[in-house]
């Protein structure tokens, strides 16, 4: 398999996973420390989603570090399919939770007007 930018087991893939983990952790911290955050269920679900995203990205970054240190090729079909499917599931989960959060925000804003 050809080395594609951002693919598993490359330096660019590691950089992408670390930045993904940092963004998820920053979102998690921002939501967790927001005033009155615990009163809205949709935002609580988003918090769980960000926690899962952070754990997934961190674990993938550790696999990339291990493959770079030990010169392991991660470009076999089984590994790439597993990463692709789990990335798809985690991104779908986050997108759905973000949509729910936006709908709740519009609902509250319209109720106050």
From TrEMBL:
This is CASP-like protein. GO terms for cellular component: plasma membrane. Residues 7-93 form the Casparian strip membrane protein domain. Keywords: Cell membrane, Membrane, Transmembrane, Transmembrane helix. Its main location: membrane. The chain crosses the membrane at residues 12-34. Pfam families: CASP_dom. It is a multi-pass membrane protein. It is found in: Cell membrane. It comes from the Eukaryota. InterPro entries: CASP_dom, CASPL-5. Homodimer and heterodimers. It comes from Eragrostis curvula (weeping love grass). Belongs to the Casparian strip membrane proteins (CASP) family. The keyword Calcium does not apply.
